Amino acid sequence: MTISFLLHYKIIIIAVLALASSAPQYNYSPPEASAEEEREVVAILKDDRNHEEDGTHSFDFEAANGIKFSQAGTPEGEDDAVIKVGQYSYIAPDGTEVEVKFVADENGFHPHSDLLPVAPAFPHPIPQFVLDQIEKAAEEDALKDLEEAEEDEEEEEEAKTRRTRTSRLYGRPK
Fold this sequence. Notes:
Layout: H1 3-22, E1 44-51, E2 57-63, E3 68-76, E4 81-91, E5 97-105, E6 108-112, H2 128-169
Antiparallel strand pairs: 1-2, 2-3, 3-4, 4-5, 5-6
């Protein structure tokens, strides 16, 4: 063997070893649970559940930390969709009691609470010229609908007349 061949052989071996040692090492382990972490255990004060065979139900829950939840549901309509009515409350971090009443029906979930945001009132009255323009547009739409209805009646009368003329000519000698 020649020196050149041995030198190339050593370079290739060193390159392969360098490549292998630079490969990522997958020795990740999940963090260990800390004994210092303490979780508050919250006592359940009330948990009443009633389920009837016809699909009606009620649920009432209360925890020692101030969380309360109650609801009642009844199947209604053709599809027996369950309409739910209820409320829940809890103590916010700032100490405020949050109470939400809700209805859940075929139109979705509808919460009601003093703490939920409300859309602002329209900032200014609508000017009279805008109201006049809206009224004028409505009148124009009504006039257009009336004209279209009259045109439809005229076309219907013409078609009726054509049918009558055609039926009179049928079977006549030429």
